[in-house]
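quick one before i forget lol
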Amino acid sequence: MKKKYLILGIVAVAAVAAYVFTPSLDTIVRRLVNKYGSQVTGTDVDLKGFSLSLSSGEGKISQITIANPKNYSAPYLFKLDEISIKVNLKSLTSDTIIIDEIKVRQPEITYEMISLTQNNVSEILKNIENYGKTSESTAADAKPQKETKATKSDSSGKKVIIKNLLIDKGNIDVIAALPGKTQKLSVALPSIKMQGIGESRHGESIPETISKVIGKILTTASQTVVKSNAIDLKGIAQENLNNVVGGVKDRVKSIGIFGK
C-alpha cells in the first residue's frame, strides 16, 4: 500500500513540475515571433499575447508591433491589434503546423520619408532581403546533422503552412519630412489576400513565413503610397532635384517617385 502511494506521489510531483516549468503555448509563440521577427526585420518585433482554444482551434493575437529603424520620428512602422486565427489542432504535434486561416483587421502602417532616397518601409524591406540571402548562404554551408529527439521536438524547428491569410481595412499614415516641406496624410491599405503559404514546399520555417507575410504587407504599402499621388512626392522631389545632380538624382529615380 505504501508503495502505491509513493508512486502516486511521484506522479503528482511530476505533473506539477511539468505544469510549472514547461512553457505555455502563449510563451512559446511570443518567444518565437519576437525572436525571428526581430531577426528578419532588423528591428524590435513584439507580440503581446496569444491565446488558442484546444477544443476549437480558434485563437487570437492581442497585438503585434514592429519598431521603426533609427532616425525615424514614429515609434512603430507597423502596429495591429486584432488578429484571429484558426489552427488545425492535429498538426500541433507534427513537424508542420497547419494554419487554416488568419484574419488581420485594421493594421496601421507608418510610411515615413526622411530624405529623397530614404524611407522606413524600404529599409525594412532591405533588411528582409538581406536576411533571406544570409539564411540561404548559411543553409548552403551547413553540414547535415543527425536528427535527435531534442532537435525534432524543438519548436523553433517547426514548419508552417498558412492556407488563407486576409489583411483588411488597413491604414497607412504617410509622413514626408523632406527639406523645406513636411506633409502628413492617410491612405487606405488595399486588402491583401495570400493563399497556400508554404504548401508547395510542404511547410516553411518560421523566419521564411514571417518574411513572406511582412514583405507582402510592406511592398503593398510602398506601392500604394507611390501610386496614390495624395502627397505630391514627385513635385517635392523635383523641387529638391534642382539642387542635386549625378548619382543622387539617379538614386531618387530608382525609388519610383518619377515612374519608369
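fyi Residues 25-136+156-230 form one domain.
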